[in-house]
Specification:
Blueprint (H helix, E strand, L loop, with lengths): L1 H12 L5 E2 L1 E10 L4 E10 L2 E6 L4 E2 L2 E3 L4 E4 L1 E3 L7 H9 L2 E11 L2 H8 L6 E7 H8 L17 H4 L6 H14 L4 E5 L8 H14 L2 E5 L10 H14 L2 E4 L2 H4 L9 H13 L4 E5 L5 E4 L19 E3 L4 E2 L2 H10 L2 E4 L8 H5 L3 E3 L14 H16 L5 H8 L1 H8 L19 E4 L20 E6 L2 E5 L2 E2 L19
Parallel strand pairs: 1-5, 2-6, 2-7, 8-9, 9-10, 10-11, 11-12, 12-13, 13-14, 14-19
Antiparallel strand pairs: 2-3, 3-4, 7-20, 15-18, 16-17, 16-18, 20-21, 21-22, 22-23
Zinc ion binds next to loops.
Length: 487
């Protein structure tokens, strides 16, 4: 009898042993926010990180992370694919939060309602200038999932007029009130929008204290125009709005080797030094991707010597000719545009201002730009490990705490993401630093990245032992809490 009495006495005086929902044991925890780089055991309870310990801990489920890096789940600020297949590619690439900020989503309410309870990763979107223009000019309203083949141009090309500016403003304000994460403006895609219309959007961002996300104006086919950058920098300065310039690699012309590309980052750095709240991002491919019917290709047919062969029709993988360009442009759909050598991007990625964001577009017939499947593993494996552009900690910083901190001022939920500490969301990406690599290519895009072994979204594995877990949907809506709203 004595031993069991002893046990009872000990149990009464000692702390009851905590049993976590799940524990990640023996991994090299790398947290760029705190600079922690140590072997730790991580305990997860109710979707949050509840313990970090060098000593033993126990859970109802155990993930053995010995020999692996345990990083905060990657935060992708620029993700267009919001279907189950895309979410699978994100998860296998270590992404736990995928946000459509460049051009936004509309209506915001419907975007969230359609995905809640059905997403492998956290998701969210900005209020959309495109959507507001569709309403202002009486164009068809296209559900988010059907926009890829839409060939209407009323919303994009009709010039601003005195009556449409207030409508655009009203719609964007309503969409922000629905919890939109900021205002997404693909300015290059709306040649009808005047400089004043764009300025008004920046005023709205300033009033609502949200970020304006912009694909700046520029010449067609992914080649940048410096005037496009000057426009948004001026608007941010004049209004005091926060500005995020998406894909500085393609918008500066770096993809094609433009000698002016470094000037874009120089201007952004100088503007920051003068108090403008501006940030930027890049994806690690010189191949771009967009819709062939979009305004980016308005001038292709009139450009002498235009190289149609560099454009790949995603649905079939065929390279275009002048004839097929015309045919497919009338039909509408996704293309991949081949760029220059990969080294063109190294000066962009060497700059500490540049976050990693994928600009992922959902595949068509399992084809499209490999950035959907490979972006984050490519930066870790190729740019950091193999080419030494930056340390592993620095690579992780660009894809975790940097984007999370960018958003958390306007989106409080992001203050619990992008970092590993007690109280943070248990979004974790566990990978082998020796083998992590992208495998998707322009020719064979439907290939998951390698070396990403376990991915937890709010504490639930969506990737386990290197394979996608089917039938689990722990992804939560990332939405602004608007005062006075029910949510
Ligand atoms: Zn873009």
């Amino acid at each position: 009898m004595l031993p069991s009495i002893l046990v009872l006495v000990l149990a009464a005086v000692a702390q009851p042993p905590r049993i976590f929902d799940r524990v990640v044991l023996g991994g090299r925890v790398m947290d760029p926010a705190s600079r922690l780089d140590q072997v730790r055991n991580v305990g997860i309870l109710n979707g949050r990180i509840a313990a970090m310990s060098a000593g033993p801990i126990r859970g109802r489920d155990t993930i053995d992370a010995r020999g692996l890096v345990v990083a905060p789940g990657f935060v992708d600020l620029h993700a267009h694919g919001h279907d189950d297949e895309s979410y699978g590619y994100y998860a296998m690439n270590g992404v736990t939060t995928a946000l459509e900020l460049e051009v936004g989503v509309g209506p915001v309410d419907r975007f969230y309602a359609d995905r809640t309870g059905k997403a492998r990763v956290h998701f969210g979107g900005a209020a959309s200038h495109f959507f507001a223009r569709r309403i202002a000019f009486g164009d068809t309203l296209i559900p988010y999932d059907q926009r890829l083949a839409d060939t209407s141009t009323k919303w994009s090309h009709t010039p601003t007029n005195a009556t449409t500016i207030p409508t655009v403003r009203r719609v964007l304000a309503e969409e922000l009130d629905q919890g939109g994460l900021g205002i997404g403006m693909g300015i290059a895609y709306t040649p009808g929008a005047s400089a004043v219309e764009i300025l008004r959007n920046f005023e709205l961002c300033a009033e609502h204290r949200v970020i304006c996300y912009t694909h700046i104006r520029g010449a067609g086919g992914g080649v940048g125009g410096f005037g496009g950058l000057q426009e948004v920098l001026t608007d941010a300065m004049v209004t005091g709005a926060a500005l995020h310039v998406v894909h500085i690699n393609s918008s500066s012309g770096a993809n094609g080797g433009s000698p002016d590309a470094p000037e874009f980052l120089r201007a952004i750095r100088k503007a920051r030094a003068h108090g403008v709240d501006v940030t930027t991002e890049a994806y690690p491919y010189t191949a771009s991707s967009t819709l062939l019917q979009s305004s980016l290709y308005d001038r292709a047919l009139d450009t002498p010597g235009y190289d149609f062969d560099r454009i790949v029709w995603a649905a079939t993988g065929e390279h275009l000719t002048r004839e097929s360009f015309i045919r497919y442009r009338a039909q509408g759909g996704v293309i991949v545009h081949i760029g220059g050598p990969d080294g063109n991007l190294h000066p962009i990625f060497r700059d500490s201002l540049v976050m990693v964001a994928s600009d992922a577009v959902g595949y068509v017939n399992h084809r499209g730009n490999p950035r959907l499947a490979g972006t984050f593993a490519r930066v870790l494996g190729r740019y950091s490990r193999d080419q030494g552009l930056f340390s592993l900690m620095e690579a992780l910083r660009r894809m975790t705490i940097m984007p999370a901190e960018r958003l958390q001022g306007s989106v409080p939920a992001m203050a619990r993401k992008g970092r590993i500490k007690v109280g943070a969301d248990a979004d974790l990406t566990i990978f082998d630093p020796a083998t992590v690599i992208d495998r998707a290519t322009v020719e064979e895009p439907a290939q998951y990245s390698a070396g990403i072994l376990h991915v937890l979204v709010a504490g639930t594995p969506v990737v386990r032992k290197g394979a996608l877990v089917e039938g689990v949907f722990p992804g939560q809506p990332i939405r602004r809490e608007v005062r006075g709203s029910a949510r």
